[in-house]
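We give its fold:
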Amino acid sequence: MVKKKSNLISIIPAFLLMGIAVGIQTKSIIVNAAIGLIVGIVIYFFLSYRNKRFNKNR
């Protein structure tokens, strides 16, 4: 069996780009980009922790 590749790392740039898009609309690009980056990193660590716990119980 082939091990499934995890693509969790692509979550971080996705949230960064969403923060930039919101920042363009609200005219505060840097602030919203930083918030998007921080949220992306937090969600990445949360999902990787959850996946490790889930795979451990299998």
The two ends are 16 Å apart (CA to CA). The longest helix spans residues 29-57.
